[in-house]
Amino acid sequence: MNALLIFLISVALLSGARNNRNMTLSEKIYNRMKTLFPDQKQGLLSGSILLSNVYSSLGKYEQAKNLRYHEKKELGVKVKIGLSWTEVYGELVRFKAHDHSHPRSSEIYAEFDRLSSILIKYNYKFDSTWITRQMNEEETIESVLCGHSEKLAIGFNLIQKPIPEFIQITKNLRVCGDCHEFTKLIAKFYQRNIIVRDANRIHHFYPNGQCSCQDHF
Ligand SMILES: *[C@@H]1O[C@H](CO)[C@@H](O)[C@H](O)[C@H]1NC(C)=O
């Protein structure tokens, strides 16, 4: 089999193990990837971030931090920062996490405050296992997760009048599980189609609250 294909399958397996928070399996897959593909530095770095996510989802923040530090140093490549783009009524906007640079940022954050309280009433729970670092004292689970770039890009669509029928987002990294769950609810709540192209695939969120990936991502 083609080596690149095997590498991509390994990343998919690792991502599945991550979603199940299976530490032993994730370590095994990551170590196998390192042995088989020592030259795929950027891909290995993404793998090490998935593995460090497993550690932090189990509360092992020190181990997560050490792994990221060592792998970054050993592989000699930089972690890409997460960016999301969206185009709304002819305006192309880019967001990074916790971005406040857009002139309408305060409206976006206000919209999230409003939405969060509505969605929580519909049984939505912010999933803290997707927080990959220790939080500062002034942060809450909600404030960290609401700052993800894809949520901000979606929020930018939601403050438009009228809200676009098709919301389109592009993200340079993989979408996180919490954003995925959140987007499903937004699609249902607003009866919109939301397309998110991430580093891995295209997610089509339908007005019925389902995603085309059927939650395998
Ligand atoms: C992790 O995955 C392995 C292999 O599929 C399985 O045998 C094991 O029970 C899993 N562990 C946990 C904690 O889910």
Automatic annotation (TrEMBL):
Pfam families with a match to the protein in the record: DYW_deaminase
Segments forming domain DYW: 124-216
The keyword Membrane belongs to this UniProt entry's keyword annotation: no
Highest taxon of the lineage: Eukaryota
Molecular function GO terms recorded: zinc ion binding
Protein keywords: Signal
Residues in the signal sequence: 1-19
Name the UniProt record assigns to this protein: DYW domain-containing protein
Lineage: Eukaryota, Metazoa, Spiralia, Gnathifera, Rotifera
